[in-house]
Please model this.
Amino acid sequence: MTTPAPFHKVKRISPMLAVANMNETLDFYTTVLGFTAAMKFPDYSIVERDGASIHFMKATDESVMTAVRGHTEIYIEVNDITSLWNHVKTFKGKYKIRDLFDRPYGMTEFHISDPNECLVFVGQKTV
Model:
């Protein structure tokens, strides 16, 4: 098996997530996690922050959401988890959130479920 020529560069990898309600999803990622809506259409939208992006596709029907709810996760690594945590924890009554904690693999994390039950891991290398 051959490997690709080493002249190309991967610029970024962006998750593409199915969503039930585009407006509710965009509100979560902008208000709770501080992303900005870079493109907004009823069936396809993109949020961005600090060079990272997440793409959202409107699910064609409920069967798609049934398949992905509770089975999708993304990981966002940050450089100042404490300041983001102080903001995110104010949403505890609205979203499922696991408090800030240290992992044995050297990361400090919190977890939050988005409106589509995608589990968002937010982490920083433990100092």
Notes: Helices lie at 22-32, 62-68, 81-88. The two ends are 41 Å apart (CA to CA).
